[in-house]
Amino acid sequence: MSSAALAGVDASMALAIIDEAKAKGYRRGIIGLRGNPTLTRTEERTHRGEPVRIRPAVSALAAREHIIEARGAEGWTAIVTDRSEEDLGAGICAHLVWARLRSPDAWDAVRAAFGATGLDQALITTPHQRELAAAVLHATPSIEDGGWPVAAAGVLTRDHLMRAVAERHLGFDANIVDTMGLMRWSMQPDVTARIRRLRDTTAHILADETLRWMADLTGAAAPLVNHLLGEGRVGDLVPVALTLNTLDNAPAQAETHAARSRLDASLGLVRSQNPGSRALGLAAVALIEDDLTAGGSDRAHAALERTDVILRDIGASALAADSTLLRAGLDARLAVLARAMERHARDPLPDHLIAVENAWAATESHRDRRALGAVREPVEAGVRLCRWLAEATPDAAVGDAAFVHYSTAHLRDWSWADAAINDASAGVTDPQLSDALGSVIDTALARRVVLDRMFARALADVTARAGASAHAATGVSSAEGSVFFLEHVLPDIVIPLARETRALMLVLDGMSAAAANEIITDVTNDGWVELAIDGGPARAAAVAVLPTLTEVSRCSLLSGRLEAGDQTRERKNFAALLTHKGITGALFHKKDVDTLAFGARVAEPVATAIDGDDHLIAIVLNTIDDALDRSDPGGTHWGAAEVKHLKALLERARAAGRAVIITADHGHVIERRVGKQRSYPDMTSGRSRTAPSGVSSEVAEDEIAVAGRRVVDKTGADAAATLAVDEGLRYGPLKAGYHGGASAAEVIVPVIVLAPVNRPLLPGPQELGSQGPSWWVGASAVSRETPSAVEWTHHAIPGDANTLFTATEQAEERPADVASKAPLTRPVDEEQECAIRPGGKPTLGSAVVSSAIYVVQVERAGRVALNAEQLERFIDEAAARGGRMRREQLASTLGIHVARLGGAVAQLQRLLNVEGYPIVRMDPVSGIIELDTRLLAEQFEVAR
Predict the structure, then answer these.
(1) How far apart are CA 531 and CA 313, in angstroms?
(2) Strands 669-670 and 96-102
(3) Where are the beta strands (DSSP E) in 68-227?
(4) CB count in 10 Å sphere of residue 575
(5) Domain named Alkaline phosphatase-like protein PglZ second: which ranges (predicted)?
(6) Distance between CA 605 and CA 9 in Å, rounded?
């Protein structure tokens, strides 16, 4: 054969034959290869740790010179020549391994590399099969990297070969060889770089064939997929599939057809729609949903963002309005919600609130938690304010009963509205949604003005009478409850508690009830429970000393009597009170707590005191009050970590076994840049001034005049004062916030008692559940579009599961009874198929807990704390909310503290997850508890 008819010998082919020789027991030597020497390069290589020389030989003399060079040399020499064995002669051939020339066959070398005894004909009949074989040899992994996987049954098939290349060079998971596996692979960040490296280091044919094999995994969609992979648009595979799914689900109209045509043009294809496109789109949706359910990866969100871009480019964003994955779907839901909130802000009617609730439920159903999370807090706060605006406004009145009602209402309701206003004020970037939030905030602030003026009039009335003997008690009482005077909190609440168990009292200077709501929610999610005071059902309230200034109110709090003064007086009076009451303790201020040794979280004197035997340690923390001057207290989320030293002190108290009392000297109002300043020469703070000497008309409608025993000037004497009421009014220069006035946010102070979870420190007090009002925790109106309860019986499930869900009645509110002794199971009455609620109609919850399968689940679950009443309530409430509940909603429904929610969810799963089916699950990102009502009905065999 002439040299022109021979191909050059690639280094990879020579190395493959050297490996074959080594496998036969040769340790080193000279390999003779039949090939075109003019197409073969002279090379020096290291292969598997040994030197390899590749030498072209155009004549017998050249071959002899290469043999002489190889004598005594380490490693291997491969001589490539077009001379025949007769031309070379027996002497030269005798020096060669096998004593003859080898005619290298690339496929034979590939077969050997895979440990196969045979080859699939599909390989050797592939166009450009010789180039493909050479490329496979060139791509052979080293022995250290594991080489190629051995071919099953001894035959090297195309599937085995391409799977091996895809796995070793492209990072493809060979264990998941299907459409989903291909899509997941395409989302890896380094896929494009891997493909480029494969093309750069081997012939393009190997990359093309491998990608074609991968595209074939998608069946009928293979042409589209192969086009994307071949054009280097691997990252567009999932976004294009999601786009196709959007178009497939859109109505068949001119807009949809035009968008599909534009997509085809952008892809460079005649048609993107084919028998496999729908399946491809469904696989992409399932993949992204799985990823988001598992917590959501950057790759999934990148794919969703790219899909939005493609839809926008082809003019199809509006067609994705119903999507639960794409941003266009979220934007459409938010637009509906904005319109509903705007209507409700203008006219808070039940129908308008229902529209808000429906729009919010649809928004929450969107699966992209990251996109929703960017706007969730302000938008959810707006929804909460809509619910609050639907609540009835109390009547204006004065007297003890009115004051107690307003004070407790502030703690349990108004302060939560203040927190929602702060959260909503953070705002969003979307103009329509921003305008809607602004309308809701404006309406809520206007209502707060009305409430604060009612409160201030009742405050002035109580303050005027507080000096009389009938009112010289610990506070103000009525049939509704009691409100403590702040100067009685230490002697009448804290010190008695400290006698029962060592205690830590934390005075968070300037902490409003709204800030306390956030702080205590955070603390109770971190292993603490809130305890009732005097057996009351809710958090206790105290009335600050007037004006609500630190030198007056804090000094009175720490002195146990009406007083004014600085830290020196506070220390002196605190020590005197503890001595008088027969207990030991210490008081620390800011400088004491801030002085930390390097590496310490708690100052040494403070830590020693907490660890010690003294009954009561009191510490003043100034973070919130300081924020009124230097930062934005309204824009701060007041968690435990945001209050300097609080988290460390709580940890120290837990370790020392101390109960914790958290309270404040006064609250504060926020500067929202919409208020007004009225300067007076007799101002005593930004929100207080001395009483006018003239007629009462000098007090404006946004102020209140107060006088009496509990109005104290800076010398500690009884006084009279005029206090700002509306939060937008200030007397002094602009700050971030203010105190000194007579709004409920400044006057009403929360008194909170905490103990570690599962570590009872006090024998009497019961645990308090979530203190959030119902409108904060969840929907206060039942959607007309979502069934809130369903009529059920338990029997065999019919073939069409959709027939199970027919709304028949509204959810019935049932009180959360923590001490309920209802049994965990109910007997199944054969005559009565399920329990009936008042009104004669059973619900899903009553049907489940009355079923025989539930009895079996209870037996299997063993000892659990939840009873049948709680289970029924959970099922019905979750069904009413579309199968989704927030943590606070679940805690309220079960009547337990949110700190115990983890164990409660585990018990719900033990009782309801029949045979491991995920009937109850918790979203790992949002913490939302999900109940699959369809699966619940199937597993417990209940039907309509």
Answers:
(1) 58
(2) unpaired
(3) 76-81, 96-102, 118-119, 155-156
(4) 14
(5) 178-325
(6) 83
Q: What pLDDT is recorded for position 926?
A: 62
Rounded to an integer, what distance in angstroms lies between the CA atom of residue 944 and that of residue 942? 7
Q: Distance between CA atoms of 683 and 116, rounded to whole angstroms? A: 96
Q: What are phi and psi of 340, to 5 degrees?
A: -65, -40
Q: What is the pLDDT of residues 358-391, one digit of tens each?
A: 999 999 888 888 888 889 999 999 999 999 999 9
Q: Residue 4 has what pLDDT?
A: 55
Q: Rounded to the nearest 10 degrees, what angle do helices 191-201 and 204-216 cross at?
A: 140
Structure tokens at 278: 């729908």
Separation CA 904–CA 339 (nearest Å): 38
pLDDT of 295 > 90? The answer is: no
Classify residue 860 by its DSSP letter: H
Residues forming a β-bridge with 942: 794
Asked if residues 811 and 779 have their Cβ atoms less than 8 Å apart, the reply is: no
HSE value, Cβ hemisphere, 13 Å, CA-based, for 716: 12
Cα 513 to Cα 710: distance, rounded to the nearest angstrom: 21
Q: How far apart are CA 384 and CA 626, in angstroms?
A: 29
Residues 691-699: contacts with CB within 8 Å, 24+ apart?
691/719, 691/720, 691/721, 691/722, 692/722, 698/722
Over the stretch 223-277, which tens digit does the pLDDT of each residue have? 899 999 988 999 999 999 999 999 988 888 899 999 989 998 888 865 677 778 8
CA gap 570, 922 in Å, rounded? 49
d(CA 559, CA 565): 10
Cα angle 296, 300, 306; round to 5: 145
Question: Residue 885 burial by CB count (10 A; 0-12/13-18/19+): exposed, middle or buried?
Answer: buried
- CA 20-25-30 angle, to 5 degrees, is 65
DSSP for 825-856, please give it.
--PPPSSS-S---TTS---HHHHHHTSHHHHH
Instruction: For residue 396, give the 3-state DSSP assignment.
Output: coil
pLDDT confidence bin for 560, thresholds 50/70/90: very high
Q: Where are the alpha helices (DSSP H) in 466-603?
A: 489, 495-500, 513-524, 555-559, 567-581, 590-594
Residues contacting 172, CB < 8 A, separation 6+: 163, 166, 181, 182, 185, 214
**pLDDT tens per residue, range 304-322:** 999 999 999 999 999 999 9
Strand (E) or helix (H) holding 404: helix 400-409
For 146-185, how does the pLDDT look when each residue is reduced to its tens digit (9 = 90+)?
Answer: 889 998 888 999 999 999 999 999 999 988 888 999 999 9
Is residue 842 packed enough to be buried (19+ CB in 10 Å), middle (13-18) or exposed (0-12)?
A: buried
Residues in Cβ contact with 244 at an 8 Å cutoff, skipping those fewer than 6 apart? 263, 272, 273, 277, 278, 280, 281
Contact partners, residue 305, CB within 8 Å, separation at least 6: 327
Q: How confident is the model at residue 476 (pLDDT cuts 50, 70, 90)?
A: very high
Query: Phi then psi for 813, rounded to 5 degrees?
Result: -70, 135
Q: Which residue has the higher pLDDT, 14 or 817?
A: 14
Q: What are the counts of helices (DSSP H) followed by strands (DSSP E) for the chain? A: 39, 31
State residue 51 phi and psi, 5-degree precision.
-70, 140
937 to 95, 593, 914: CA distances (angstroms):
82, 57, 11
